[in-house]
Amino acid sequence: VDLICCEKLHGIEGENFTIKLNVNQPMSESIWKKDKDKVAEWQEKGSVKFYGSLEGRAFFNEENGDLTIFNLQKNDSGTYVFEYLDSEGIINDTDFFSLLLDGFTEPAISCNTTANDNKFRCATDFHLPVNYTWKIGNMIYSSEGQEISISKNYDPSTEVTCSAKYSQTEKSSQINLTQCSR
Q1: Pfam families under this entry (predicted)?
Q2: What's the CATH class of domain 7-102?
Q3: Does domain 108-179 match CATH 2.60.40?
């Protein structure tokens, strides 16, 4: 029987990623599985044993069941499930989590000159919402949007930088105002 999935989680290759749980009762033993294969096992008063690709790259929080994977790799994508034995001897399953690894490329900056200002647009090919920060010369502007307008009074040699950030990964691109006025 295939199980219908699940909460989708998104990680970026190379980052550390934690699958957070809401286990609020004492556990006496637990197992994390990825695609039906055991990847972590813990027994009360014992150490955590990791298997396969997580060996040496993961941390298990014995208090709440959270699993942290260090330096995410493409083969970490998959469906994860957490099973634990509570203090009354009952086996519990958590929700299933589908971990998807996404690529994150540098943003592209485009500009449009109008009679009064220069309008800049920053775009990524990333399919999840990102946070943008703009740097114009030495001034930094946080913006939730992909666009910013600045006066035409800036020196033509001024650099405009757009940074796009998701999770712990941030990538930037820049353009010179002279490139905008062409």
Answers
A1: Receptor_2B4
A2: mainly beta
A3: yes
